[in-house]
Write a structure and sequence with these properties.
Layout (H helix, E strand, L loop, with lengths): L1 E2 L3 E5 L13 H4 L4 E5 L21 H14 L5 E6 L1 H12 L4 E7 L4 H6 L3 H6 L1 H6 L5 H8 L1 H9 L11 H10 L1
Parallel strand pairs: 2-3, 2-4, 4-5
Antiparallel strand pairs: 1-3
Length: about 180
């Protein structure tokens, strides 16, 4: 947490941590009090065991975590900037805690239900990690932890830009946290 001004909660995507914001946090802190949080199960956050319904990692549960965090830090109202999976959590945060969220920017978020409804082979191949990550534990965890660097390359490097946009220190942090 740092900076001056209204509270701005930053939420990362998968498989990143709060480190994704390292290049912009300083600039944002000139205008906002920046809170770059790790979502439940990511980075150095708590990692409770999962349950059959995935309640411990549901977007609603993680949104409640963020609302509690902001309360604990003394912010009853705040703005949100969120990416990817963090954007889905932020969306839920805005629905469940609408009076607290003043503004919200969601980056790189796809209409999940529409995408699932339109699933075909091309989608499944491109978004394979969606289906992989909902497998019962401990299979995804074991396979990811067997070679975290390869998992990162598979998920983050498969797009046209490859791994070039990612700072080495950010990649090292993501790998450490997997």
């Amino acid at each position: 947490m740092g900076g001056n001004g209204p509270a701005l909660l930053l939420l990362h995507g998968h498989p990143q941590t709060h480190m994704i914001w390292h290049k912009v946090a300083g600039t944002l802190a000139q205008h906002f009090t920046v809170i770059a949080a790790d979502l439940r199960g990511y980075g150095d956050s708590g990692k409770p065991d999962d349950d059959a319904e995935h309640f411990n990692y549901a977007k609603r549960t993680m949104a409640a975590d963020m609302a509690e965090l902001m309360s604990a830090l003394g912010f009853e109202r705040f703005k949100v900037l969120a990416h990817d999976r963090g954007a889905r959590v932020a969306h839920r945060l805005g629905v469940d805690h609408a009076a607290r969220v003043e503004r919200m920017v969601l980056l790189d978020i796809a209409p999940t239900l529409a995408m699932y409804r339109g699933t075909n082979e091309a989608f499944a191949r491109s978004y394979w990690h969606w289906f992989f990550l909902i497998r019962p534990q401990p299979l995804p965890e074991m396979l990811i932890q067997a070679d975290p660097a390869q998992y990162l390359k598979s998920v983050m490097g498969a797009r046209s830009a490859g791994m070039a946009p990612f700072a080495p220190e950010a990649l090292a942090e993501y790998e450490r946290c997997l």
